[in-house]
Structure formats: structure tokens, C-alpha cells
Amino acid sequence: MAGSEVITLQVGHYANFVGAHWWNMQEGSFGRRQPGFEKEINHDRFFHTGCTSKGEETYTPRMVFMDLKGSLRHLRRDGTLYESGDTDVAQVASVWQGSVNQEVTSASAKNQFLSDLDAADAAYMQQQTGVASAGIPSATTPASTTATAAAAVAQQSDVPMPDRYYDLDDTVEVWSDYLRPHLHPRSACAINRFTHCSDSDPFDVYSMGLDVMQDISMADQFEDQVRFFAEACDRLQGYQLLTDIHNGFGGVSSEVVDFLRDEYEKKSIFTVATMPPCFEQTDGQHVATRSLSAAFSFQHLSEASSMLLPLSTSTAGLWPSLSAGQTVQSAHINYRSDLSYHTSALLAATLDTVTLPYRLKASSTSIHQVADLLTPLGRKVVSAYTALPFPFRAGSKLVDCFAELPALHSDSLSMSMTPLTHDDELAYAQHAVLCGIPPELAKQTDEGDLKPDDAFRTYLGGSPSAMINSSCYVKEASVVSAPFPNIFKPSVTVRGFVETEEAYLRPPGYAVHTLPVMAALQSRNSSSRLVEHIVQSAEEAQPQRQFAFYQSSLSTDSWSETRESLRQLSDNYLSE
Length: 576
Description:
This protein is α/β, with parallel strands linked by helices and 576 residues long. It has helices spanning 13-28, 89-95, 112-129, 135-140, 143-155, 206-212, 216-231, 248-263, 284-304, 340-354, 367-374, 398-403, 452-462, 527-540, 558-572, and strands spanning 5-11, 47-51, 57-61, 63-69, 188-195, 236-244, 268-274, 307-311, 383-387, 415-416, 427-435, 466-474, 478-479, 514-515, 517-523. The chain has a domain at 5-28 and 49-72 and 170-378: Rossmann fold (3-Layer(aba) Sandwich), CATH 3.40.50.1440.
């Protein structure tokens, strides 16, 4: 069914880490048809159907991303599906009368996953054309790397690539090192004024992002790319904005939401503020810069968005150290808090679940309806909880499983993915989703059948975590196959169910493919604690002395206005 499309915007390097996992999970579900039911997800909501100049149909994320120069590594800005718009040296020489020097640098080696992906693409192209071709790999990959990939494919020819076991922990440096889907040429929007991981000229101040978007050519490029996808929609419902808020990208995203509000004022904007749980630079000046950037970003995004969801695996605020107990924990997960590749995967799995209601074929739920439920009285900030995996044992009764569980927001069941918002009080409202429990695997009550969606609603009502509940049950499981990191303990089976008996534990070298998940967005009074933490952290940074913020776009009065706006936002959660 056409219509109700969503455009996703990703602004910032960590936001793109989250986005890469999220698109991998969505594409991974394309070919996984579980027995007994039809596909429930309408991927047309998030994916764009296009056509190359050769008449070949393409299916790519309806997405525009922004990142710095040098952050893409092996990812071509114009993608690999369409004809390249690059001008070669011969064309330049034909119009340039002077001498032309061509410098060629060798491509850095690809990790095993990308090498296998290239080999699979090459095999597909040969199958389609009947001509052996290095095709896609040769454009970006040294011959030795392609040979390695081909050998790996031959060795594991009996194992589908998504089901293979990869250990990428030491090889992932940027988010494109594990991105699966091909991207549309209109998706990439690089900020060339700044270089990724530059020590001499870091893109770390909020106002730098404001300045970047004052560049007419930069703003026009981004806006044109957004309009391209918007004009191809039959009935655009709104935007999802994933953004860093602790650096210059917070300023970029502030300009982005202003553009969306001016150009598409009736469309919903669901903003996700992504934050890594730790940073390499922990000295006072770096912390001050991050804190003040986050405060300016948070204020503007909360004001201009329909709904703002802060996401992080931190439990101790925005800038914790890596001491024990300061990141979320789970009985069935073992992850490294210092790897963005790991922490962003948890955030992506949460997003993949809570957005299911407005991606379903049979659902009329929209972003606007979710935001309307969760953001009354100016309470724009929402929090997220996730049980990853949902602790279900195959063959058990779902009602018995629910009967043994505490409330959804309990520490023993769920991870709070929004810092400082966890408490034992009832939320005002929640939007809860359960996915991945096929009806035929969930034995029902002895008295008769109780459908999984009814069991889920009964659980939410019997173990309340919110005064107002909106629930959604989806049969399809969350897909966490390669290149999702191997963060699940042996107690999680290949299908994502939880086992305690040693005979049923997942053996080493086998990856988890799918996962049942329960997750929720909640409107909680405790969101005021996070807002106050942001204000306090920024005040400790002594804003009037942070001159880098006020060199162009911001005035010295800007912090006073921002502080008052944030305190008003905090007060909204304290009013009855």
C-alpha cells in the first residue's frame, strides 16, 4: 500500500552508527519469512523505489545522512547502483589546457564482512548478466581483498551470508564498515569543511554546526536532497531525525528542524538524540564543550520536534566514565561500552521495535498519533525501555511467562535506554511493542486459546508501568544477523529464545539470527531529572567563558534564554 511514507535524516557520526545497524536490521528482514503467516511490515514506509538509467529497479533507504569528510571510508558518496557522476582524468584533460597530475592511493583493506558482501554482489551481477565481472568490488577493493572474499564465500557456501559468524569488534572504525544496504546517490551529504577525527580543527562546538548550515551551497544541497525524497512520496507522514547533540552536529540538526518546520510545517518530526556512553577526551574543556553543545541542542530540538527521544546506554547522565555500573546491563547480553559498534546496536534494536506500529501493513498508526499520546502539556521528551531479548523459552506458555515478569520498566526485565529517567513510579503513558513470539510457539492457557496480543495487553494491565497504555503485537522477530555484533550470551539461542539448560545453550561460533523484543516509549515525570542534569552540566561549564560558542551565530545572551527554556521544559513534568 502506497502512502504514509517516512523520511529518515541522520546527522552525526554516532547517529550514523545507530542508523547503519537499523537499516541492516530492516533489510535483513526482507527475505526472512517465518512459517505460518505473511509478512506484516510494509517496508515501503521507510524505503524508496527508484530506477537506474538502464531501467533497473532499486530499493534503497529513504534517507539523507550528514557526516564529515573522511568518515565514509569504503562507502561511495554516489553509491554503486547508479551511474557514477564523477569526471575522469581524460575528461578533465580534454577541457583543461595545462598539465594534469593524477595521484592514486591504495584503498584500505576491507573487513571480512565487507569483502564477503562485495563477492556476493559480484556473484549476483554475474548471475544477472551472464558475464563474469569484478563489478562492484573492483571499484573500491584491492584485488587481494576480493580474492580473500571469494575464498571465504567458497568456504562457507553452505551458510547464507546473513547467518555467518563475524567478529568485527577490532575492525570496525566507522559506521560504513558494517553497512549492508546500497544507498541512493541522493542520500550522502558530506560536510567537507571539517575532517573526521581531526585534532587540529575538531567539529565539536554547537555554533560550528549553525555556521555550516549558513553556507548557501551546503544548505541548498541538503534541502534539495530532502525535497527529492519528499516529492517522490505519495502521502508523506513525517520525518525521523537521528542526531548527535554533543558536538557541532547539534547545531546542524537545529537548522535541519527549522527547515522542516518552515517547509513541511504539518508533518511530524520524531527526533532521536543519540549519545555514546563514553568519550576518549575527559578533560575539563572537552566535557564543558560537550555539555554546553548538548544543552543548546536539546533545547532547540525539544522545542521544534513533535517528540524528542534521548538514547544512550549510559545510566549516569551524559558524560560518565567507564566505571562499573554506569552503563545499562542485561542478564543475557555482554557488550563493550567503549565500542560504538556495540552500544549503537542496542539503540538501533530499541528503535527498530518501537517504530513497528507505523510500519505495519495493517496498521493505521502514525508518528503523529504516537507523539500525541506521549507528549501532552508540552512534555516533548520521552524515554525508552527495552527487554532485549524478551525472556521467552520456546515451548512454554506465554501467559505463564508474563505471569512471572515484573512491570516492563523493572531493572530485572528491561534496560532503560534514556539516562536518568528510570524510577519505580507509574509513567503517564506508554507505547509498548512486543515482537517475535509466533502464535504456534506460544502454548496458550489450559482453558483455551489466548492470543499473544491479548496476553500482552493483560500483562500491561496487570503489571502496570503506565496509567495509559497503547500496545502493539507483531509476529515477526527482530533480525540481528550479521553484521550485528556478537553480544548475546550462550543462554540466547540462534532464534533468540532464552534457555537455561546446558544442553540447549548456543555453541561458540554460532550467531543469533532473530530475537523477540519487548520495548516501550514512555512519558515519565522523571524526564525532568535528565533536563535538569543537562542544565546543571552546562552551568558547570561556565557558559560565559566558552567564547568559541559566541564567535558568530550565538550571542552572549543565548545561554540565558536557553537555560530558561530548558527549565520551563523541566517544569512541564512537575505540573499536574
